[in-house]
Specification:
Layout (H helix, E strand, L loop, with lengths): L3 H23 L6 E5 L4 E14 L8 E12 L2 E13 L4 E8 L4 E5 L3 E23 L4 E22 L2 E2 L2 H9 L4 E6 L2 E6 L2 H11 L4
Length: 213
């Protein structure tokens, strides 16, 4: 038992260190952050959600890894709420300007005024090995082993996409504050993708919208 105690203590310390190292990164999404720029007398609060938006049917499309940001900005006693969408797309894909927010009682049709596409080119190298064993002769019972290494190179282009910030009007904010469910829908090549926020995410959004200075 005496020898076991140091081992248990070491395991506990390593576990605590590992937990502390991953928790901040895990919480970096879905958490409200606050910034203040005293030079221009501006305060901002924002929250980012990262999720897999689901298509209407998986027969024609797959889930889309999506990032949606809600932002509150206060300057000169004026408060504005905005939202923006960002993601990574294949080079031949485009986001439609049309999108929707749906609360319990209202469907809001909205449009992104501007969408920026930034092209990137990536190169990935991977190495594969093949082992071949050949017998030299049955009498000598010797064999020759040959290992062949092959380098495979994959190149592809893609776009990092970000929409402009869309201002949320007071009527939309009021509905969000009093709704139990909120669904976000957007389109890529006329294919619809949707995401319904969880209760915890809804609480965070409402907290941001109700922030007072």
């Amino acid at each position: 038992m005496k020898n076991l105690k140091p081992i248990l203590i070491t395991i506990c310390i390593n576990f605590l260190f590992f937990s502390c190292s991953i928790i901040p990164r895990f919480n970096s999404f879905g958490k409200i952050f606050h910034e203040e720029d005293t030079y221009i007398n501006q305060k901002s609060s924002f929250v980012r959600f990262v999720f897999d938006a689901k298509p209407l049917t998986h027969a024609f499309a797959h889930n889309r890894y999506t990032q949606l940001e809600f932002l509150k900005m206060t300057k000169d006693n004026t408060v504005k709420f905005n939202m923006a969408l960002s993601m990574r797309l294949d080079i031949d894909e485009k986001i439609e300007p049309l999108f929707f927010l749906k609360t319990d009682k209202q469907l809001f049709e909205m449009h992104f005024d501007s969408i920026q596409y930034h092209k990137f080119h990536e190169i990935h190298n991977s190495t594969s090995s093949e082992t071949t064993t050949t017998k030299e002769s049955d009498k000598e019972k010797k064999s020759i082993t040959k290992i062949t290494h092959t380098v495979n190179t994959n190149e592809y282009d893609y776009n990092k996409v970000r929409t402009n910030r869309i201002q949320l009007q007071d009527s939309i904010i009021r509905h969000i504050l009093f709704t139990e469910k909120l669904l976000f829908r957007y389109y890529i090549k006329e294919q619809a993708y949707s995401y319904q926020f969880s209760q915890k995410e809804m609480d965070t959004i409402k907290m941001l919208l109700k922030v007072t200075d």
